[in-house]
Amino acid sequence: MTFFEATCTAPVNIAVVKYWGKRDTSLILPTNSSLSVTLSQDQLHSKTTIRASADFTSDRLWLNGIEESIEKNKRLVACLRETRALRAQIEAKDESAPKLSGLKIHICSENNFPTAAGLASSASGYACLVYTLSKLFELPLNASDLSIVARQGSGSACRSLFGGFVAWEMGEKEDGSDSRAVQVAPETHWPDLQALICVVSDEKKGTSSTEGMQLTVKTSALLQHRIKNVVPKRMEEMIAAIHNKDFPRFAELTMQDSNQFHAVCLDTYPPIFYMNDISRAIIRIISEYNKDGIKAAYTFDAGPNAVIYAPQQNMREIYAILSHYFPGHAFEDSLGLKKNDTVHALPQNFDTRVSPVFSQGAVKQILHTKADDGPRVLDSAQYGLLNAEGLPKRLA
Ligand SMILES: Nc1ncnc2c1ncn2[C@@H]1O[C@H](COP(=O)(O)OP(=O)(O)OP(=O)(O)O)[C@@H](O)[C@H]1O
Ligand SMILES: C[C@@](O)(CCOP(=O)(O)OP(=O)(O)O)CC(=O)O
């Protein structure tokens, strides 16, 4: 059988100025601009293979080895419609271009981390879907143009089309053509910036981001203050802090923005709680660590998991502190944090009373990662997820 196929991976991103609220729910246009750091695909990624073939009789999707309906997923349908329309334009202009826009496709995607657990799987998942479609259809679009399509899968996905430090400019136009991601600085700009992801829970969360943010838009007066009076200035300050590699300022803005995001969740009626006792203990521990000068920043998305950003030289100390309070976690030491380790003690003058020591496994896993590059193209013949019949090689 003749077929056309592409396989790609895409990273997750963790926002330091949070997106929370839509002004248009079908085009996914946000109520404020946001900014994130793209994290290394060596630790967390989505991987997607898409095949187009005249032998296929319907569009099909497998996510983590389980078949899911495409028709019921409006966001996925929108991404497919947009990319097929762009392919059809190429075919209309160039007689010799294979007619891929009319072929059915099989999509197989896997996340190497828990889906829908507040670890930004929708961001890497839709970025990967749209990027892989663009390779399959050979679309002549840059990452910022593609981000407009990925945004319609999941807002935060638009930022995963770039590596490094990425802003999603909210735009003003009704059609969303100016609501796109742009790179503020590549990952090579600040290679020293690393992250520890503390997995507090890997279960599917209670209130999805999509539902939660619209309830906030409807009911929170504090959100209106945030949109108008806080985020525009904070975006400028954050971009300056990144350009200057000013970690203390970057960290302060990151923690303040996480705090305000969770404050607007509390200001939602009825309120939404994403953080739990463990999350709050992590905030107290990092605040104590920062008492003589800022050395680490915490941030929390729509779930209890913490992401801690810090310069590489502070990571051992931070890991030692976290290990004291949260024993019995699995540790993915991919960047060699514990190699030749002599630092096990807490820093001098660290007031251990800020938090009780939690029971074994309260924090399940700690992942050490760093700012890194955007989507990657893989060789389908070697790494593709579909077998000769166009079905997943692995089912759940
Ligand atoms: N690899 C993937 N390919 C296509 N779609 C995906 C992929 N991974 C996740 N998704 C979509 O994203 C949904 C999960 O998004 P959701 O926003 O609930 O969780 P999350 O992204 O983990 O959390 P958050 O965005 O709040 O950090 C899945 O149900 C699926 O529809
Ligand atoms: C708290 C956040 O992670 C919210 C992410 O929301 P989503 O991008 O998952 O929402 P949808 O656009 O409805 O799919 C903050 C952020 O990533 O900026």
From TrEMBL:
Record GO terms (molecular function): ATP binding; diphosphomevalonate decarboxylase activity
InterPro entries given in the database record: GHMP_kinase_C_sf, Mev_decarb, Mev_diP_decarb, MVD-like_N, Mvd1_C, Ribosomal_Su5_D2-typ_SF, Ribsml_uS5_D2-typ_fold_subgr
Gene Ontology terms: cellular component: cytosol
Residues annotated as domain Mvd1 C-terminal: 195-378
EC number: 4.1.1.33
Catalysed reactions, as listed in the record: (R)-5-diphosphomevalonate + ATP = isopentenyl diphosphate + ADP + phosphate + CO2
Protein keywords: ATP-binding, Lipid biosynthesis, Lipid metabolism, Lyase, Nucleotide-binding, Steroid biosynthesis, Steroid metabolism, Sterol biosynthesis, Sterol metabolism
Pfam families registered for this protein in UniProt: MDD_C (PF18376), MVD-like_N (PF22700)
Diphosphomevalonate decarboxylase-like N-terminal domain boundaries: 10-181
Any one biological process term the GO annotation gives: sterol biosynthetic process
Pathway of action: Isoprenoid biosynthesis; isopentenyl diphosphate biosynthesis via mevalonate pathway; isopentenyl diphosphate from (R)-mevalonate: step 3/3
Family: Belongs to the diphosphomevalonate decarboxylase family.
PANTHER family xref list: DIPHOSPHOMEVALONATE DECARBOXYLASE
Protein name: Diphosphomevalonate decarboxylase
Species this chain originates from: Lobosporangium transversale
